[in-house]
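Notes taken during the Thursday session

The instructor put the following on the board and asked us to keep it in front of us for the whole hour. The protein is ATP-binding cassette subfamily B protein. We were told not to look anything up and to reason only from what is written here. First, the residues (594 in total):
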Amino acid sequence: MWGGSAVSEEDRLDADEAKQVLRRAARFAKPQRKLALATLGFVTLATSTTIIGPLLLRYGIDEGIAKGDRGALNLAIGIYIVVVIVALIGSRQQYIFVNRAGEGFLRSLRLRLFAHIQRQGLAFFDRNKAGVLVSRMTADMESMSELVQWGLLQFVSAAILLVFALIVLLIMSWELTLLGLLVMPFIIVATRRFQRDSNEAYLEVRERVGENLSAIQENITGVRVIQASVREGEQRRRFAVINRQLYDAHLHSVKVSTWYFGAVEFFGVLATAIVIGAGGWLASSGQVSTGTVVGVVLLLSSLFEPVQQLSQLYNTLQASTASLAKMFQILDTTPDVDEHHGAVDLPESGELAVDGVGFTYPRTSTPVLADVDLTIASGERIALVGPTGAGKSTLAKLVARLYDPTEGHVRFGGVDLRDATLASLRNRIVVVPQEGFLFDGTIADNLRIARPDATDDDLVRALDAIGVRARFEEFPDGLATEVRERGSRLSAGERQLVSLARAALVDPAVLVLDEATSSLDPGTEALVEQAFERLTDGRTTIVVAHRLSTVQRADRIAVVERGRLAELGTHAELVELDGHYARLAAAWTASQPV
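Then, after some discussion, the predicted structure tokens were revealed:
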């Protein structure tokens, strides 16, 4: 199997783009400069010992064996033993230092990339799929790891060995060297073909691997449908077909590498035969020594080996450069929602004003909101209602500055949210999502997502504030209970209670809630309703409402229709108006069980 990875045509960089990426990577790697220099020193040391071996052998044959000088022979043997020890030390140290430098570079890049992704607004995640971002942090980083762990080491070592070996060969016998290099044009042609064919073969393997993974994922996800329809046999047949395609792709890749390495080995043997034949004739006529012929033969193998290594590194270097370019593309992305220079803290309280707001999502041309004006007094509860896709959830996100409006302004206490510090913004305006998302860890860990510095007493006070402390104390481990991945150990209602408790822990001035539409278990539905009421009491609240009971408890109702604020008033006023809201209320009432 050939070494390295390949890069698809759409990701392939031209020479100028590749140089720019590598220059930028070099600047990014400056903190690792000392380790890189130490690595270069040990690589040079280890490579030099490869050249010294044939020279010592030449000296031992010509000065020791041929002349019968035991002292010269012992000297060559003694120096050779020292060289072997030095080579061992140099080889070990070069691997240690290159991995320290390479992993240090990757660690810094990984941390910086992760931190930059965390700074991005929701628009960034609308433009980039989660799977693509995960791929940048995993597959692309792994591609880089392959290069820095052994690729760069082999590249530098092969380049030094190639140059040193050629120089020494020419000094020892330029005639034999030129004869040995007669096969080099054939090796170059074979190498160029290998680079092309291996890249195509790898792409084929990668595509087939992707098809296999997709098939496995689809079958596991849809196993209930498959078993219910008795389609197991058909699914096995389909998987056998794509699995065979992967098998064939792997075999083709083996054939590509086999013919190339076989060709290089053949031309290497041919070059050795030419040098031995010509060297024997020159040695018999006294033009070169026997030791020189032996030294040239050994060094020629050192000349062909780097060519093989460099050709194998071609795809690895391409793939790594393409991966770097993708990572730098993310690092160059300016956060859509960012803190501007000179940002000020939001006041602790104040009215919330939406002034002439319009919004269009990235990569779309149709406005979701247009010319929306809404003023919400401090402590007022506003319900946003409207049909699906009307823009009510988008308006709620703009109020919380999860997005910035493309037109108009959102102000709190007279301060435009774009001019506020992000810390004060997140402390004054808190969003409670439609479904409580929990991270793997304990209940306490998940509560501290909102306030990492919160003490155990702070957590208890937050739970008391919304009246749910007893619910979580019922667990055997209390707040130390592990919730497992995505909070699978808790019910939907309990996960929502954790979200509400997070908000209580921050104690914000404004709450923005997207009311949960999923059915809650009877044991927690009443508790969630109670917690919701206690949390919103006395706070400015904007709730995207999906139930009539929630709407009726609001001080005012804002009806969003086709991206505009169509109606605004109390429940009684809007029912009497007999417009959009009256029809929605009638539909809600009709859907209730008798």
